[in-house]
Design brief:
Layout lengths: L8 E2 L3 H11 L4 E2 L5 E2 L4 E2 L2 E4 L7 E4 L5 E8 L9 E3 L6 E2 L5 E5 L2 E2 L8 E3 L6 E2 L1 E4 L8 E6 L1
Parallel strand pairs: 1-2, 1-7
Antiparallel strand pairs: 3-4, 5-6, 7-15, 8-14, 9-13, 10-11, 10-15, 12-14
């Protein structure tokens, strides 16, 4: 690795983290909120690359942000264009491409003629989405906010 393109804090499973990295083509690492990486002498805001024998390069990460994952299970059939609030009091910025939405593990596309709509004007902070089709009871909606 010759540099760090983008590193973000993520506190979910390693299996899902690997899937997210492959899907987005970016580097996301799983870190804790605080602490020292054993033997490296670096903190959670510093990343090491090299041979990890203390001869590597240590770089401050300036793109560190949290990735949130929230899951909503449809309690009943939901008609098109009914607002669905993202659980966990999470929000996203409309039009920023920082929201990923999956239905039963399948990535959905945003847009009025696609799968779902972000609710609000570009740049607004929003907490809801609306689907352009019926959602069946027990459908699993996964929201990932980057």
């Amino acid at each position: 690795m010759t540099g760090i393109a983008k590193i973000s804090k993520y506190d979910g499973s390693f299996k899902f983290l690997n899937k997210l990295n492959r899907m987005l083509g970016e580097l996301y690492v799983r870190v804790r909120d605080a602490g020292i990486f054993p033997g490296l002498g670096t903190t959670h805001t510093t990343a090491a690359y090299g041979d990890h024998l203390h001869s590597g390069v240590y770089s401050v990460v300036d793109h560190l942000h949290t990735v949130y994952t929230e899951i909503y299970i449809c309690p009943y059939n939901i008609a098109p264009l009914v607002p669905i609030t993202i659980p966990g009091s999470r929000s996203y910025r409309v039009g920023s491409n920082k929201l990923l939405v999956f239905i039963n593990g399948v990535l959905q596309q945003a847009g009025t003629s696609n799968d779902y709509r972000e609710v609000g004007n570009t740049g607004d902070v929003a907490t809801t989405v609306m689907f352009n089709y019926n959602l069946a009871q027990d459908s699993k909606i996964t929201f990932i906010i980057l």
